[in-house]
Specification:
The complex is a heterodimer. By secondary structure, chain A is α/β, with parallel strands linked by helices. Chain A is built from eleven helices and eleven strands. Chain A is globular and about 65 Å long. Chain B is globular, with a radius of gyration of 20 Å. Classes of the chains: A alpha/beta, B alpha/beta.
Chain lengths: 322, 258
């Protein structure tokens, strides 16, 4: 039925990837593939491990955190590569857009220098040439008066413009894989809509493979064709957007979908659909299925973590919803 | 003809300007109007949403309502007896809104102490904890021992302590995990009903305002560009900016792949 499940060669193949924060395992042996030219949404709340998973793939885990397992990009295991080898790939073949451009950009470097930097590092362009390219890139991300912005500092730009500048920097070397971590969460809703449209167009033009990390399910619906759902450091569901959002199998995915209030219908029985309990802190999720202490379907079976099961649309649940 | 509803706040042509930093000492000071010529009423018992993006003036308006800022022009009146006691606020970030060194009991009862209200402390504390769905044992613990959603409950209990008639909530769920937001929103629904509260909700989240507020004000660049019954505004927004705002909300049914 869906053309979406047609097999394409994966660009990144993540398997058995775990991340430890000190002695606590925060990401538990996740595995997924990013198919060439596809857009995958990675959904999760705080503590779900979604950002740590992306940082581990990019080799950007902060000190004190360590990754094990594999994340293979073009026959190279990113988890095992040296920092020097990662530096050659990052910003060139693989790049990342962060949530808060004000802290991700260097406050004492001009926008022009920062957007030009990957071109100087990876393409060997000189100062003048790289700045000319940076200006084209700023125009491509629709920053008004691009020439003027080249010499300005991040604080002189609006939030939306800063995020556009970061996108310009990320696509400067036409990366094969683009990871965007909550790229629009800090933005106003109308600016978010513009930035998402821009990202959509650029990913298409570049033919890039996108991994979009967010807690916002509707954003994934509008931008992605596949979706991964994480909770408590586990990958609990994955599949085509249509299948997962229209017939979710994991009770967590179902509850998240139901908790989004409709804009054109009244609330059923006048109340918001709530998920009981709170998201536990790191290392405080229950053993076995991490959702079982909040799940209406949980039984003693759930004390053992189920495997991800299914073809194309997979879920890790003993009592799936559909 | 029904009886005229009682008014809680009345704003007439309220303007608030802020001085911009001087470009040079000899140049005249320039001002920016954060709230400009805003007029509206808040009726007793209603829930009013104030929506707008950053820079729209919604936070300045909230500060004006709380009496933390004075209008430069126009008139903003609270029509009850004591603004300080009867109008309480809940902020966005429950982490920075709670003193980490105080026990929950002291946090919740602080308004009573500061305002010199004589009430049996122990009874009131238990009433408040129960009202916001926290266990009695929470009283002796510190804020860091609680999750984000529970901390927001503590902040709400504190706001309720002096028995307010009006509750202002500034983005009360935006800092919370998606899966716990609905609990706090339901709590606000319950409290409104149980304590006959007038609710003013400042939010950029139109999905929340849609279901929590009967009426809304849409703000843009310091002005109220549209006001009306929530259902009517959502069904047929009159102003281009409101239309833009509503169209910008991502929904689950807008799919990239059909």
């Amino acid at each position: 039925m869906s053309a979406v499940s047609a097999p394409t060669e994966p660009v990144v193949r993540v398997s058995d990837l775990s991340v430890r924060v000190g002695t606590v395992e925060a990401v538990h042996s996740v595995g997924f593939e990013l198919a060439a030219g596809r857009r995958t949404g990675l959904i999760g709340e705080s503590g779900s491990g979604k950002t740590l998973t992306a940082l581990a793939v990019m080799g950007l885990l902060p000190d004190g955190l360590s990754a094990s397992g594999r994340a293979v990009y073009r026959e190279q295991d990113l988890v095992a590569l040296s920092e020097a080898e990662l530096c050659r790939l990052r910003g060139d073949r693989l790049s990342m857009i962060f949530q808060e451009p004000l802290s991700a950009l260097n406050p004492v470097q001009t926008i022009g220098e920062q957007v030009a930097e990957p071109l100087r590092l990876h393409r060997g362009l000189g100062g003048r040439e790289s700045l000319a390219r940076a200006r084209e890139l700023l125009e491509r991300v629709q920053i008004p008066r691009a020439a003027e912005k080249l010499g300005q500092y991040p604080h002189q730009l609006s939030g939306g413009q800063r995020q556009r500048a970061m996108i310009a920097m990320a696509i400067s070397c036409s990366p094969e894989v683009l990871i965007a971590d909550e790229p629009t969460t800090a933005l106003d809703v109308t600016v978010q809509a513009e930035v998402l449209r821009l990202l959509d167009r650029l990913v298409d033009e570049e033919g890039a493979t996108l991994l979009l990390i967010t807690h916002d399910l509707p954003v994934v619906a509008g931008l992605c064709d596949r979706v991964l759902v994480m909770y408590g450091g586990h990958l609990v569901e994955e599949g085509a957007v249509g299948e997962v959002f229209d017939s979710p199998r994991h009770p967590y995915t179902l509850a998240l979908l139901e908790s989004i209030p409709s804009l054109d219908q009244e609330l059923p029985s006048g109340r918001f659909r709530a998920i009981p309990g709170a998201v536990p802190g790191l290392g405080q999720f229950p053993s076995g299925c991490p959702f079982r202490n909040r799940c209406p379907r949980a039984t003693e079976l759930c004390a053992t973590m189920p495997a991800l099961e299914g073809e194309g649309h997979r879920a890790a649940c003993w009592h799936p919803a559909s | 003809m029904s009886e005229q509803p009682e008014m809680v706040f009345r704003a007439r042509g309220v303007t608030k300007r802020f001085a911009l930093p001087r470009q040079a000492p000899w140049l005249p000071r320039r001002f920016v109007a954060a709230v400009e010529e805003v007029s509206f009423e808040v009726l007793r018992g209603e829930s009013l949403g104030i929506v707008g993006e950053s820079g729209s003036g919604k936070t300045t308006l909230l500060k004006l309502l709380l009496g933390l800022e004075k209008p430069d022009a126009g008139e903003l009146r609270y029509l009850g007896r004591s603004l300080r006691r009867e109008v309480q606020v809940v902020f966005q970030d429950p982490v920075s809104a709670l003193d980490p060194r105080l026990r929950v009991a002291d946090i919740i009862l602080e308004p009573l102490r500061v305002m010199g209200l004589r009430e049996p402390r122990e009874t009131r504390l238990h009433e408040l904890l129960q009202a916001v769905g926290l266990p009695r044992a929470a009283a002796g613990r510190y804020p860091h021992e609680f999750s984000g959603g529970q901390r927001q409950r503590i902040a709400i209990a504190r706001a309720l302590a002096p028995r307010p008639r009006v509750l202002l909530a500034d983005e009360p769920v935006s800092a919370l995990d998606v899966s716990v937001r609905a609990q706090v929103l339901n709590l606000l629904l319950d409290l409104r009903r149980d304590f006959d509260l007038t609710l003013l909700l400042v939010s950029h989240d139109l999905g929340v305002v849609r279901h929590l507020c009967q009426r809304l004000l849409v703000m843009q660049s310091g002005r109220v560009v549209e006001a009306g019954e929530t259902r009517r505004v959502f069904a047929a927004p009159a102003q281009p900016y409101t239309q833009l705002l509503l169209a910008a909300i991502p929904t689950l049914s807008q799919r990239r792949t059909a």
